[in-house]
Design goal:
- The chain has helices at about 1-10, 10-35, 40-50, 50-60, 65-90, 95-115, 120-125, 135-155, 155-165, 165-170, 175-195, 195-205, 210-215, 220-245, 250-270.
- Helix content is about 80%, strand content about 0%.
- It has about 280 residues and is an all-alpha fold.
- The protein starts with a helix and ends in an 11-residue tail after the last helix.
- It is globular and about 60 Å long.
- It has 15 helices and no strands.
- The protein has one domain: ABC transporter involved in vitamin B12 uptake, BtuC.
Length: about 280
């Protein structure tokens, strides 16, 4: 216990704790978009597609934070939009095209990074390492998180109309095409901002579980955003306090805690849970 208290006094621990709270809240807030759009599997696929962009950016410009960020964003957008283009210009459906493009890109990116001698960094990008996040990583995550929360809040009403009925939104003059691409780009940015924290393989849990939990607790879509943010933030902070004494990987612990919270809601939710009273 004394050792843990000493650890909490270290700047790296305080920085990591703050990162858990901010990144967890932002991802939980944005997770409502993923759940309401029913696009969790597509987002999970795209999260793994960030690796080739990182690899090419390092190959061309070296191991710089800004080039890694830009490369990951471009890779996510190219895989997502490229798979959509292939599906619209061939007999192949969107999910199939997305699977082929993202696995090919992932394999190429992995080969490049291993050849560059960055095996340890590959593990960090795949599974996350909050403790190794530098100041630049944190400020990028904070900036993207603030932009995501403020942007969704400002466009909350038209956004909900679009998510539930795109045709009605278009009839009301809401720019549905801009909303579609904007939501996609925003989710990609949030994915990139949390890449160092929980990694490409685990970030999907952080971007789905909080809002999915709220979906079992309420039928009000507006509550899924703030409720998801609260679950994401509190769950991530709780995971921080559990991971050190247990000796668990922090990124993986965050997903385990959020998964347990979802499971609890699935079983005990008074309205939608497994054990709800039958009428």
């Amino acid at each position: 216990m004394n050792e843990f208290l000493q650890f909490l006094g270290e700047p790296i621990a305080q920085r990591s704790l703050w990162a858990c709270a901010v990144i967890g809240f932002a991802n939980g807030f944005v997770s409502a978009l993923v759940v309401l759009k029913r696009s969790s599997l597509q987002i999970g696929t795209i999260s793994c597609a960030l690796l080739p962009g990182i690899a090419l950016a390092i190959l061309l410009f070296g191991l710089m934070q800004m080039s890694i960020l830009i490369g990951a964003v471009i890779a996510g957008l190219m895989v997502g939009l490229g798979s959509l283009f292939v599906s619209r210009t061939s007999k192949v459906d969107h999910d199939t095209a997305l699977s082929i493009i993202h696995t090919t890109g992932f394999a190429i990116g992995y080969i490049i990074l291993v050849r560059l001698g960055l095996q340890q960094k590959v593990d960090d990008w795949l599974f996350g390492s909050i403790m190794s996040m530098g100041n630049s990583d944190l400020w990028i995550a904070y900036g993207i998180s603030a932009m995501a929360v403020l942007g969704i809040t400002a466009l909350h009403r038209p956004l909900l109309i679009y998510l539930f009925d795109a045709k009605a939104a278009a009839a009301m003059g809401i720019p549905t095409r801009a909303f579609s691409y904007g939501i996609f780009a925003l989710i990609i940015l949030v994915l990139v901002s949390s890449l160092q924290a929980v990694g490409a393989f685990l970030t999907l849990g952080l971007l789905v579980a909080p809002a999915a939990t709220m979906y079992l607790l309420t039928n009000r879509a507006s509550l899924m955003f703030w409720g998801g943010g609260l679950i994401g933030g509190v769950g991530s902070v709780l995971a921080f306090f559990l991971s050190y004494p247990l000796g668990w990987h922090l990124g993986a612990t965050i997903i385990v805690v959020l998964g347990c919270i979802f499971l609890s809601a699935y079983i005990f939710s008074p309205k939608y849970g497994l054990l709800r009273k039958k009428r």
